[in-house]
Design goal:
Structural class: mainly beta
Order of helices and strands: HEEEEEEEEEEEEEEEEEEE
Strand content: over 45%
Pfam family, one: Porin_3
GO molecular function, one term: voltage-gated monoatomic anion channel activity
Number of helices: 1
Shape: globular
Main location: membrane
Number of domains: 1
CATH topology: Porin
CATH class: Mainly Beta
Distance between the termini: 29 Å
Protein name: Voltage-dependent anion-selective channel protein
InterPro entries: Porin_dom_sf (IPR023614), Porin_Euk (IPR001925), Porin_Euk/Tom40 (IPR027246)
């Protein structure tokens, strides 16, 4: 467990990972290779129905500087340069996409024992400025996430979050969409030996007066095999099994059933990640 409160994106992350991470109904294949000079090349393919998407990511690490260059099937190029620990607790990230000239962005993150700050600004004439900050400790933290569009002179995003962490329990509360959505999440480790955990997320929309409830669990059958399941109040039930058949190489099978429309066929997804 870290000493500080982390970044705003860390609030509720353990519950989100339990409930949503690795679930999919598409087919995905990822393979990573390493050159003798230390360059990591990751090729990915994703089949969504009749659509096939692919990209190639090249990563080069040189001391505390990491450069990522990704090219997809539409010839879009995304470049990200990360400078880690230029000063204690400081990380700088520069990213831009070609041919989208307005996508260039500079982000600075700073982690402290009692605060976590992330601020970014678009490198354009009228940029969008984003600021998120968290204060507290690794036990209790309070944060906010704001975006300001200088072109229209208005706040486009205003969120707030609260997180409480105990030895085996994490609870969080988020107010999103400029106060229109209230979300509460819960993550509890039942058995550390088998990584058995349960989680839940409840979201209420004030504008529509609708509630969305999702509950899930995970369990480690053995040190290499994990099963997960989730269900929500809309009747969607999902399950997956993930096996690490060699270090860092994962094979995942997931499925989804609509319990309120059993006449519809179930959806299945496959994901294969290969690393040397």
């Amino acid at each position: 467990m870290g000493k500080g409160p982390g970044l705003y994106s860390d609030i509720g992350k353990r519950a989100r990972d339990l409930l949503y991470r690795d679930y999919q109904t598409d087919h995905k294949f990822t393979i990573t290779t390493y050159s003798p000079t230390g360059v990591a090349i990751t090729s990915s393919g994703l089949k969504k129905g009749d659509l096939f998407l692919a990209d190639v990511n090249t990563q080069l690490k040189n001391k505390n500087v990491t450069t990522d260059i990704k090219v997809d099937t539409n010839s879009n190029l995304l470049a990200t340069v990360t400078v880690d620990e230029a000063a204690p607790g400081l990380k700088t990230i520069l990213s831009f996409r070609i041919p989208d000239q307005s996508s260039a962005k500079l982000e600075v993150q700073y982690l402290h024992d009692y605060a976590g700050i992330s601020t970014s600004i678009g490198l354009t004439a009228n940029p969008i400025v984003n600021f998120s900050g968290v204060v507290g400790t690794n036990l209790l933290s309070l944060g906010t996430d704001l975006s300001f569009d200088t072109k229209v002179g208005a706040i486009t995003k205003c969120n707030a979050g609260l997180s409480f962490t105990n030895t085996d329990l994490i609870a969080s509360l988020n107010l999103n969409d400029k106060g229109d959505a209230l979300s509460a999440s819960y993550y509890h480790i039942v058995s550390p030996l088998t990584m058995t955990a349960v989680g839940a997320e409840v979201t209420h929309s004030f504008s529509t007066n609708e509630n969305t409830i999702t509950v899930g669990t995970q369990h480690q059958l053995d040190p290499l095999t994990t099963v997960k399941a989730r269900v929500n109040n809309l009747g969607k039930a999902n399950a997956l099994i993930q096996h690490e058949w060699r270090p860092k190489s994962l094979f995942t099978i997931s499925g989804e059933v609509d319990t309120k429309a059993v006449d519809k066929s179930a959806k299945f997804g496959l994901a294969l990640a290969l690393k040397p």
